[in-house]
Design goal:
By secondary structure, the chain is of the alpha+beta class. The chain is built from 15 helices and seven strands. The protein folds into two domains: 184 residues, Cysteine proteinases (Cathepsin B, Chain A), CATH 3.90.70; 123 residues, Serine Threonine Protein Phosphatase 5, Tetratricopeptide repeat (Alpha Horseshoe). The chain is 48% helix and 12% strand. Strands 1, 2, 3, 4, 5, 6 and 7 form a seven-stranded antiparallel sheet that branches. The longest helix is centred in the last third of the chain and has 22 residues.
């Protein structure tokens, strides 16, 4: 991997004219719409609400060392979210000497160690543009090899519709300019792989609920309590009825001994999902932890013990009954 610029030309005559020029160059080859289908689609269906010109000039730039575009690109998006980082400490985390590069799995996993959430975008040019327009630089995987495959990570931080240009932090170039069509031809080979890295109090502009919660749960396995709590709270503001976020947030408060807050979160969630066995079970456990055993048992009576979580309900009931018996024994 290196930072070779495969094309610097910037066409000023306009998006449609540029596309026509490239079509002439490719005469005898496949139609342009087949070579760069998403660029072709953008000519007539520009994403609604997306400005035609955006450049995130505040995005940091770290020129890459030889073959180490992964650490440089990852440091770029992490630093943009406020993480005090440079590529050097990331090398050992994402760069594989045997492959002379970085795999996507390491690129996604590493931000979680810094309490950031990694999110893979849909394979969509329009979604990539929406994220950049929302202020989120997008890390992309390209094949920039002229003949042989040469994978390369770069960060998109802007675009200009009128000239058909994408702006990237790439390799040793703080501002690489690539035509929309040329960029797509390098990007399409990775199946349009792209990711954003987000702080826990922010959600990507194009995030889908289930996919975002999967990303949050992945961060929760390694993040600190404050960041995890913030991520769940942020998710609930966007999707108030999300079950995973409610349970996760309640668990975080429960683990810190904030039982009243945990119970309140679970009660709110039950209003939207009154038959949720998981919510009933967790709320009953939390009530019992507060010494409200009778109320907890009454609540458990509403749970369907034939559900996949029936065994957890039976275990919780047994625990509560043991606690009640212990209280009785102590009073004898």
């Amino acid at each position: 991997m290196n930072g070779i610029s495969i094309l610097k030309a910037r066409v000023r005559a306009g998006f449609a004219v540029f596309a026509g020029c490239l079509l002439a160059l490719l005469s005898g080859c496949a139609p342009l719409g087949q070579l760069v289908p998403q660029t072709w689609e953008l000519r007539s269906h520009w994403p609604q609400g997306v400005p035609q010109t955006v450049e995130l000039t505040q995005v940091p730039f770290f020129p890459q060392d030889e073959f180490q575009c992964g650490p440089a690109a990852l440091a770029t998006v992490l630093a943009h979210t406020g993480v005090p980082i440079t590529p050097e400490p990331l090398v050992s985390q994402v760069w594989l000497p045997s492959r002379q590069g970085s795999l996507q799995v390491e690129m996604l996993a590493t931000p979680r160690r810094y309490n950031r959430i990694s999110y893979v975008l849909a394979p969509s040019y329009a979604d990539m543009l929406r994220e950049v327009a929302a202020g989120n630089p997008v890390l992309v995987l390209q094949d920039i090899g002229a003949v042989l495959t040469q994978w390369h990570y770069a960060v998109i931080n802007g675009f200009d519709y009128s000239s058909g240009t994408v702006f990237l932090r790439s390799g040793t170039q703080a501002r690489q300019e690539m035509p929309f069509t040329a960029f797509e031809r390098t990007w399409i080979k990775s199946r349009y792989w792209a990711m954003v890295t987000m702080p826990p109090d922010k959600i990507p502009a194009t995030a889908a609920e289930d996919a975002w919660m999967t990303a949050v749960l992945a961060m929760a396995r390694t993040g600190d309590g404050a960041s995890i709590t913030t991520a769940y709270e942020t998710a609930l503001r966007r999707w108030p009825d999300n079950l995973q976020a409610a349970i996760g947030l309640a668990n975080e408060h429960h683990s810190r001994g904030s039982l009243i807050t945990a119970a309140a979160i679970l009660r709110r969630a039950l209003l939207a999902r009154p038959k949720s066995v998981v919510l009933i079970n967790n709320l009953a456990q939390t009530l019992s932890d507060q010494g409200r055993h009778g109320e907890a048992l009454t609540l458990l009576g509403q749970a369907d013990t034939n559900s996949p979580f029936g065994e957890e309900v039976r275990s919780t009931r047994e625990l509560i009954e043991q606690r009640i018996e212990q209280q009785r024994s102590a009073l004898r």
